[in-house]
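Sorry to interrupt, but I need a hand with the structure work. Can you supply me with one protein entry, sequence and fold together? No commentary is needed, just the two lines. Leave the record below and I will have a look.
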Amino acid sequence: MNSISKIIGIFVLAIITFSCDSSQSLQQYYVNSKENTEFISVDLPSSILQLKDDQVSEDIKNTLNTIKKVNFLALQLTDTNKELYTSEKEKVKLILKNPKYKQLMRMNGSKGNVSINYLGEDDAIDEVVIFGSDNTKGFALVRVLGENMNPSDILKISQEIKLDGDSNQLHQLEGLMKSIN
């Protein structure tokens, strides 16, 4: 009986050891950053995404229904938060280096970079992450959360979407964009 309890103990310890991932998830990063007043955070429900024209294909309508929420997080670079900007940008880069994030695209410029990553399978994406940084303005992190999103369909629908102009969240985002420029 004593050897069975030792085996069970070793098994439980192994499960705990292997299931604990010490790296921070993007979700944890968002939650922690929202608590910091240096960050600007806006959560946009999919209900503010509307089609410009009702005369679109069923595929486009179905694709829109795969998007559940859009999270926006930004850190505006100022003279007083340069160290915070640098350390937070490195945290995001480290999170996105996790092999579970697959890179769709990366653009490097003289002032900054943009990367687009995703979680899920090539034809059934659950999360798209857009990370852009500009060494003179700051960085922005956008998460498009959904269920079984198709990347080519998401690109097609981007031309067909308009935002609900009466949304409080949209007004917050507009104010944010004006303050950054």
User: Anything to note?
Assistant: The CA atoms of residues 79 and 136 lie 10 Å apart. The chain has one domain: 23-180. Residues 11-21, 169-173 have pLDDT under 50 and may be disordered.
